[in-house]
Amino acid sequence: MGIAYTPKSRGRADRYRVSVNEYKQYHREGYVIVRGLLPAGTIGELYDLAERTRTRADTKVKTGETDPLKEEFAQATRVHMLSRIDAAAERGMLNPLILDVIEALVGPDVYALQSMMFLNPPGRGGQGWHQDACYIKTHPDTLIGAWIALERADEENGCLWVAPGSNHEPIYPPAGFGGGNVHALDSFSDLHEVQNVSHLDDEVNTLSKVVANYPPPIPVVLEPGDVLFFHSHLFHRSYPNKTADRFRRSYVCHYCNARSLVPWDHDGYEGDSGNYRQILARGRTHLPYAEPAFGTEVYLYDGVEGSDSVRMMGMDDGMMMPVVQKKED
């Protein structure tokens, strides 16, 4: 007799419950904004982390790099995987309010995969049109991002821009980009390669030609504590910070359903998947997983396993009727 799975995480008084409209917005448009999701104390801790990261980085070093995105990494205006070396970064990635929303949108079982701290000082930052699942592949394809504003993000200091509804697009494979595929080879008749994905210049980044099929993209203006949840197929980008005296600090994390195979890890992996390096942040999984390195509390499966199973029985009128079978003692 099969065992029914009734997902349920251990309860909390401050749990965020996603509305049906938020769920529909995410799956229809590819994103949803939860205003004021994170309290001031949480944002303050992440802002302090951003400042510690900034003061360690010399953003005035000249590297000679001609690719704008590679230059940003070289200048340390964005830093990956602080969650593996800093307790505050891990707490931010595993924040239960963030995971409440992720659990509802792509769960119920959730891996925490990646963290990125963006500093974006005046005159810097920006990334051209791209789709996140191009970089982090999951099978089934369940990747989702959470973009946490640590200060106001607007058109002047380089907020995110999105093309609503573009989450329904497949992943356009960049020419010469390795790391496997999201879609099965030869499964599409007209899915073409694109050039220079993430490049700031739309004349160079040919994914911009697909974006042009949509209504004009919209800016995502956020205040501290607001969180943008966005689909991994959504076309999105940002522009360099145009201000002279403002940063654009943000903390961006990625997650997926914990039943997905994850042939990826930022720091590399052995074998056919990097699942064993990803933190199980919510629910349960039959796949390998990691535990929080700094002991951050996570709210895993706390349900009751049932012994009933459901099968479909044909009726005389041709309709199907679900029938519960109970396990005999």
UniProtKB/TrEMBL annotation:
Keyword check for Secreted: no
Domain of life: Bacteria
Pfam families reported for this sequence: PhyH
GO molecular function: 2-oxoglutarate-dependent dioxygenase activity; iron ion binding
Gene3D superfamilies reported for this sequence: q2cbj1_9rhob like domain
This protein's UniProt keywords: Dioxygenase, Oxidoreductase
Transmembrane parts of this sequence: none
Protein name: Phytanoyl-CoA dioxygenase family protein
Keyword Oxidoreductase in record: yes
